[in-house]
Amino acid sequence: MKPRYERPVIVRHVPGATSKFGVLSATRPMKAFEGLPIADLVGRYGSPLFLFSEKVLRERIRELRDQLARRFADFTLAWSYKTNYLDGICRVFHQEGAWAEVVSGMEMRKALRLGVPGRQILFNGPYKTEADLEQAFRSGVRVHIDHLDELALAERVADRLGIVPEVGIRVSISELPVPSWDRFGFNLESGRALEAVRRILRGGRLDLRALHCHIGTFIQDPDAYRLAAKAIGLFSVVLDQELGVRVDTIDLGGGFASHNTLHAQYLPGDEVTPSVGQYVERIAAGFEEAFDGAEPPRLVLETGRALVDDAAVLVSTVVGNKRMRDGRRAVIIDAGVNILPTAWWYRHDVQPAQDVYGTPEPTVFFGPLCMNIDVVRERIMFPPLRAGDRVVIGHVGAYNVTQWMQFITTRPNVVMVSPRGEHGLLRRAEDLETLLAQEEMPAWLAS
Ligand SMILES: Cc1ncc(COP(=O)(O)O)c(C=O)c1O
Q1: Torsion of CA 94, 282, 234, 62, to 10 degrees
Q2: Who is most buried in 16, 22, 81, 278, counting CB within 10 A?
Q3: Is residue 20 scored above 70 in pLDDT?
Q4: Which CATH topology does 54-309 take?
Q5: What are phi and psi of 310, to 5 degrees?
Q6: Among candidates 381, 318, 437, 398, which has minimal Cα distance to 86?
Q7: Residue nearest to atom 3 of ligand 1 (CA)
């Protein structure tokens, strides 16, 4: 085919455009996903298309489990539903022995419907309705109480049901080398957490069994976990010694970084993200400092993005090209921030899905929305692409298929590929009918 003529432009030199190895990773095409040609998958399921690798999901959770097994006699992983609650994804993790960690009545009901026993569901979050609490207590779900009003509501529900349910409290720790998430739970340093425990003991309606703390997300300093484990561990020792309360579980939430790259990060996540072994080792060190050789309570982790983010890609098709006034090539693709909200936080990898020719140049990838905010990748060195070419956006498994929006257009197919090369839908693409099924016309407008 005769190449299309492109008017030459002068482009400002961008230092640091190559990686430390001197290669431009963007030019390496990714033509297959788990051994299946991407072109065939898109031909079958359409574009844009989310592809999940079952193999990577299982590898990631097994790696974390193996690391924990080396250092902890008693531990449990609880899959963080909000990170990705598609049934097929949850099923893989439950098959691997994970419990469910939910943050709403809807997520709790999704886990119960999927067959997770109530005793293997942990219920976090700042908003639980009376009906949620009643269902949780009846099903044996362990509720982690977030604030005093919830505590009072939980006591009333327990009283009405005539049971003394096992609960936990969420604790926030401020003195850590990460931003303080003290809007959740009872603060440790201010004494609120101790007050909450005293209040539970006075009420006599709830059986305090767990301390929970989620220190934040995409934590790149594993030592923050040592400090958190130590602080919450020491708190449990104080509860035991001073109030006679012996918790059976310390839940350190989620927060391990995936191999994605934040906008503010210089080196790519693939090169600098700590291994799960490093995080686990720091937690073990924190417990060691707190319990000084005594048997610690069971450790629970609710790891989300580090297990699922790297397991998925988003395939997208080039709609067209244009030249920005600053010289950057602009490529419009059919996937935008409506289905990839993590583009606001991450400098997602973008690779071509076919051979590409021509000199890489500064390129911006825009999504298909008629909105200025719809930027998938602000600046990346990329060779020219033609309409109809495909790109593969990496590390998209966490939070996108739960936080995505039905905005301007509909959401695409989500597909799982098995280690044996099988492929099937995890979620069907929406169409206009999906949208209209939810709409109503008020009677006075109907005629
Ligand atoms: C209570 C709780 N547990 C677990 C997670 C999962 O966190 P991550 O995906 O950062 O591992 C979150 C996410 O914010 C959370 O709020």
Answers
A1: 10
A2: 81
A3: no
A4: TIM Barrel (3.20.20)
A5: -80, -5
A6: 398
A7: 253
pLDDT digits (tens, 9 = 90+) for 171-196: 999 999 998 899 999 999 999 999 99
Testing ligand 1's pocket by substitution, the residue of 76, 77, 81, 83 carrying the most ligand atoms inside 8 A of its CB is 83
- Residues facing 262 on adjacent strands: 346
Q: What is the CATH number of domain 25-52+310-432?
A: 2.40.37.10
Place of tokens 């051979």: 355
Q: Which residues does a 6 A CB cutoff place in the pocket of ligand 1?
A: 80, 83, 101, 124, 214, 217, 253-256, 302-306, 398
Show me where the domains of the chain are located.
25-52+310-432, 54-309
Percentage helix, strand, coil, to 5, in the chain? 35, 20, 45
DSSP per position, 337-381: TTT-GGGGTB---EEESS---S--EEEEEE-SSSSTT-EEEEEEE
Tens of pLDDT, residues 209-238: 999 999 999 999 999 999 999 999 999 999
Query: Which atom of ligand 1 is nearest to 219's Cα?
Result: 10
Question: What residue owns the CA closest to ligand 1's atom 14?
Answer: 217
For the four alpha carbons of 209, 214, 220 and 223, in that order, the dihedral sign comes to negative
Which residue's C-alpha comes closest to atom 16 of ligand 1? 214
Chain centre distance of CA 435: 26
d(CA 100, CA 111): 7
pTM: 0.94
Q: Report which protein residue has its CA nearest ligand 1's atom 10.
A: 255
Q: Which neighbouring-strand residues pair with 80?
A: 101
Whole-angstrom distance, CA of residue 117 vs CA of residue 94: 11
CB 210 within 8 A of CB 155: no
Alpha carbon of 360 to ligand 1 centroid (Å): 38
Helices and strands (H and E) in the chain: how many: 14, 20
**Residue 103 alpha carbon, nearest atom of ligand 1:** 1
Q: How far is residue 39 CA from its own chain's centroid?
A: 28
